[in-house]
Amino acid sequence: MHDLGAQQDADLVQRYLGGEPTAVAMVDGWLARAASPFRRGLAAEWEDVLQEIRMEVVRLLQAGQFRGDSRLKTYLWQVSCHTCLDVLRRLRRRTFVGLESAEAVPAHGASPLDSVLQQEGGQAALRAFASLSPECRELWRMILSGLSYRDIGRQLGVSEGALRVRAHRCRKCATEAFRAATAASAGLREAEGAKDALR
Q: FRET label pair with 45: which of 31, 56, 84, 124, CA 20 to 30 Å apart?
């Protein structure tokens, strides 16, 4: 009986990682039900947290962390609850500043330094976007055009759950590429500054 359950779980893991719609829907349902007691505390963060849970589950399953010591549903339930608790702890550590305590922003235009930094940031964003895979670039184009995950999923022929996982991966790649492009720009500025100092 235990062997049968373990085989069913292993099969479900493979189908889920392969993006099979019925497997994704089943696992997503388990994850959402496990996280539901935390929904009120998470408030506006709810959808993002569900996405974070999905990404953590994919990471753990791909790394072979589920070893069958318990049933898959129990394991996923624990992952979901632990992720929610981690997010709640992060939210409690956030410091919010009221608008009344913020300094007034001057009415005149941006300073020359702000203009340069803004321009460099835009160039870094373009370099980061260009370094993404064609699949990610197309997905971003569809998201920015206002299409819902459901509409995009229909066009690409994938389930909404699998698409959300793919979007999260692309967001992570874009963030890393932007950081790398920004760091490269900063390094170039420092090198030029050092050259000017030697003249």
A: 124
For the domain that residue 46 is a member of, what is the CATH number? 1.10.1740.10
Residue 97 has phi, psi (to 5 degrees) of -110, 125
CA pair distance 83, 68, nearest whole angstrom: 20
Per the document, the length of the chain is 199
The pTM is what? 0.47
**Residue among 163, 164, 162, 191 nearest 16 (CA):** 162
**Could you give the CA distance from residue 163 to residue 94 in angstroms, rounded to a whole number?**
30
Number of domains in the chain: 2
Round to whole Å and give the CA distance between 178 and 131: 9
Question: Is residue 145 in a domain?
Answer: yes
Q: Over the stretch 39-63, which tens digit does the pLDDT of each residue have?
A: 888 888 889 988 999 999 999 999 8
Calpha distance 45→39 (Å, rounded): 9
